[in-house]
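User: Teach me something about this protein's shape.
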Amino acid sequence: MTTFVKLTLSNNEVNRLFTRELKNGVNFYQKLMNKVASLIKCCQEQRVYALLRLYQMNEAVNTTIQKFYDDIDTFEGVLEKKKHLAGKKITYQPVHFPEVRFDSALASSLVELFEVYDHLISLLKTLRTAGCFSNDDDYFNNLRRYFKEVNRLLSTLSLSSVKELPSITLDEAIHQKEPYQLHTKHHGEMDYSLLYKALTSNVAPRIEEKLRQPLLSCLNKRIEQDSKPLSSYHSEERGAA
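Assistant: First, the predicted structure itself:
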C-alpha cells in the first residue's frame, strides 16, 4: 500500500527539496524515494546487505533530526532571553503543502526531518528579525550550513548504489553458508551486532515469526561465539598475571 502525508511548510528553502530538478530533468525527491523503494524491495527479498544499508540510512537521518532538535532548543532559549518575547508563543503560517511518501520507516523519518528542518529555518528567520545575529553574514552562514547538511545527507541517500549490493540473504549470512563465505574472503566479516540491531528495528522486513525467531536465535549465538575468543584471551592474561 502506498501512503502519502501532506506536509505544512513555512519556508521556500525547504519546499525546494520537493520541486528541485536535477540536470537530467528528474525530480530530486522522486529519485530519492525511488532509491528507498528499491532498497525496501531488496529487504523484502531478505537480502542482508540491503537491510544493513537501509538501517544505516535511517540512523543517519535520525541523528540529523536529533541534532536539529537540540539546535531548536538552543535557539528558543536565545529568543526567551529577549524581554519582549519572553513567554510569548511564536507561530508560523504554512504556505507550502507538498504530499510526500509515508509508507516505510525511512519515509516516516524523512517526513520528521523535513518538518524539523522547516521549523529550524523559521527560527533562524525569527532570530534575525529579533536582532539576535550581530550581522546578516552570520544569519546567511547558518542558513547555508543547514542547507548543506540536509542536502549532503539526502544526496548520500539518493546516490547510494543498490545494484552493487551483494544478493546474500539473511539465512546465508547468519548461517555462514557458501555465498557468504565467498563474499567474506574479499570483503571481510559482517558486523553481526549491527545486523541484530537492524533485524530488530522498525526498518526490518516483515518476516513470519516461525522464520524470524530461529534467525534471531542463531544470530544471538553467532554474536556470543564472536565475543568468546576475546573474553578467553583476557581471562588467560589475568590468570598469567
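Now, about its shape. The mean pLDDT is 89. The radius of gyration is 23 Å. If you'd like, I can walk through any region in more detail.
User: That's plenty for now, thanks!
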